[in-house]
Write a structure and sequence with these properties.
Elements (H helix, E strand, L loop, with lengths): L4 E6 L6 H10 L5 E6 L14 H14 L6 E5 L6 H11 L5 E3 L3 H9 L3 E3 L11 H9 L10 H9 L2 H9 L5
Parallel strand pairs: 1-2, 1-4, 2-3, 4-5
The structure holds adenosine-5'-triphosphate and magnesium ion.
Length: 174
């Protein structure tokens, strides 16, 4: 039988437990998941500290660690800065998909206009499980580790990610 594939797009800066929860929910509905890494060309900024390659490591290791036993594809998607062609751009990079999962109103609108089925995944403790909150805690030395899968803690330690963020805060003025 034809496989049903779902697409989840995010920046995953970093991949956190909310993302993992939503991946597990999606895999209850489809046979295979495509995880699109948005703004893939961005890294080393306060909003987007991690490279696409680092984010791929975080996601793949988290899914293995949590025993995900369905096929997943992790695809970096650089920005095109042109909303009118963005859906075609995404389709040109990913395996074919039947449904898109997103809570982002612009993403939802663009896929809807392109005739693609869109579903809004449930949010899981959004106050805590948010990239913005995790990056904030990294800078203020608060507990961020409990908000991400263990594998993400290891990757961030390997790449010295917390010090990278702290360096990005500094200015060259005295
Ligand atoms: P940032 O604060 O940097 O925007 P984020 O936590 O919103 O980070 P994104 O990469 O922007 O992470 O998220 C991509 C998608 O993942 C969101 O549009 C949303 O659908 C889903 N998502 C994010 N956080 C959660 C959560 N806590 N529970 C369920 N889904 C989530
Ligand atoms: Mg977001």
């Amino acid at each position: 039988m034809k496989k049903r594939r779902g697409l989840l797009i995010g920046r995953f800066q970093p991949f956190h437990k909310g993302h993992l929860f939503v991946v597990e929910k999606i895999l209850e509905e489809v046979d295979e998941i495509i995880i699109g890494i948005g703004s893939a060309q961005k890294s080393h900024t306060l909003e987007n500290p991690f490279t696409a390659g680092e984010r791929i490591m975080m996601i793949a290791k988290s899914l293995f660690e949590n025993g995900i036993n369905k096929t997943f594809y992790i695809i970096p998607i650089p920005d095109v800065n042109n909303n009118a062609i963005w859906v075609s751009h995404v389709k040109s990079l990913t395996p074919p998909f039947d449904v898109v999962y997103s809570g982002n109103p612009l993403v939802k609108r663009l896929f809807k206009e392109a005739g693609v089925e869109v579903k809004t995944p449930p949010l899981y403790n959004r106050k805590l499980y948010s990239g913005t909150e995790i990056r904030r805690r990294m800078i203020t030395n608060d507990d961020w580790q409990s908000l991400v899968p263990k594998a993400v803690v290891s990757v961030i330690e390997e790449i010295d990610g917390v010090n990278r963020l702290k360096d990005l805060l500094k200015s060259d003025k005295i």
